[in-house]
Design brief:
Length: 349
């Protein structure tokens, strides 16, 4: 996956990746020629699948130049976009040279909700206009609804909008803080509760209001959780258990400054393939993996481990605890998920 730019034209209140246009980060981005050099290296090293993201990739002024270069190299391209910048120029390019997959994130079912979540009411009309366009070209259209408290009740509106188009949408409820500690978002107040996430993912989408009603009941089960379920001082002694991420083993992330990381969320360690090459950078990353992919000792001993949503060290870091400790939100999820699956018996939906 490559992140072409740090900038996004939307200002989503829970976004973990984009930066303001005037930020120092946006001044550190590599040029189109440098991207071409990296793409040639990827091709020479046998890479076939290429996901392009951001920020918002379509906001990059030389997006078309870089995209066409990648397309002509023969990559199987997936575009990940908010689809609010699909103008006539982009439509012309994608009509002639369509990406294999187009992944669009939807943030609400009305202009009012788009304003609350992204800061732009006009994004609502533009994204659905783009969806109509992508249906006319040879690309697989994949729609995702990123849910927070401000838009969770819009699910019926979005389903009604998509039903005549015979399109499905999947849910993303995994919200975490920004990868840069200096960027403050409202993720903590906006993310859904563990109970809401569990119930929504165990009901059909057209039963979302029923799921949210049951989540209010499930939330009360937290009173049954053991008071010493988590420890603020969980340590790696004895040695913590290794974890493995399939994405990190099979791929990597090239950031807008040209650096290589395991993924978009894990900000360390970094390698610089423009200086030492793609192959050497990946070799260095792979050799260090055991130093970064492990889970806290308490997680390994936890009786609710199989109900936990993540053993991802990047998420542990982003939730503020680091790979040597655990966070309350994740533990609440594991406990309630156990209650739900063992007692509520809704997991067959």
């Amino acid at each position: 996956m490559i992140g072409l730019t740090y900038y996004c034209n939307l200002q989503c209140k829970m976004c973990a990746f984009s930066y303001p246009k005037n930020s120092k980060k946006c001044g550190d981005m590599i040029s189109a020629e440098q991207w071409k050099a990296l793409l040639l290296q990827l091709k020479d090293n046998g890479i076939v699948d290429l996901a392009i993201t951001g920020g918002e990739p379509l906001s990059k002024p030389d997006f078309t130049e870089i995209y066409l270069f990648a397309y002509n190299l023969g990559f199987k391209i997936t575009i990940k976009t908010n689809a609010t910048l699909v103008d006539e120029k982009i439509k012309e390019v994608f009509s002639k040279y369509p990406p294999l997959n187009t992944m669009i994130t939807i943030y609400g079912g009305s202009p009012e909700t788009y304003k609350k979540v992204t800061g732009q009411a006009g994004g609502y009309e533009r994204v659905f206009d783009a969806i109509e366009f992508f249906r006319t070209i040879k690309t697989k259209l994949i729609l995702t609804l990123t849910l927070i408290k401000e838009n969770v009740h819009d699910i019926p509106l979005i389903l009604n909008k998509l039903q005549p188009l015979n399109l499905r949408v999947s849910l993303c409820t995994d919200i975490h803080k920004h990868i840069n500690n200096e960027i403050v978002t409202d993720y903590y107040n906006s993310r859904l509760s563990p109970a809401q996430r569990i119930c929504l993912h165990n009901y059909y989408l057209n039963e979302s209001e029923q799921a949210l009603a049951e989540a209010e009941i499930l939330e009360k089960e937290l009173s049954r959780r053991e008071p010493d379920f988590i420890s603020e001082n969980s340590s790696r002694e004895p040695k913590s258990e290794k974890t493995y991420c399939l994405d990190a083993l099979l791929g990597f992330f090239l950031d807008a400054d040209g650096s290589m990381r395991y993924c978009q969320e894990y900000i360390t360690p970094k390698q610089y393939p423009l200086e030492i090459g793609i192959a050497k950078s990946w070799e260095n990353m792979y050799s260090e993996m055991d130093n970064y992919y492990f889970s806290p000792q308490m997680c390994n001993d936890c009786k609710y481990k199989k109900y936990c949503v993540t053993n991802c060290p990047a998420r542990l870091v982003l939730n503020g605890m680091g790979t040597e400790s655990i966070d309350k939100y994740t533990c609440d999820y594991a406990f309630l998920n156990m209650i739900y699956k063992e007692e509520y018996k809704k997991n067959d939906k």
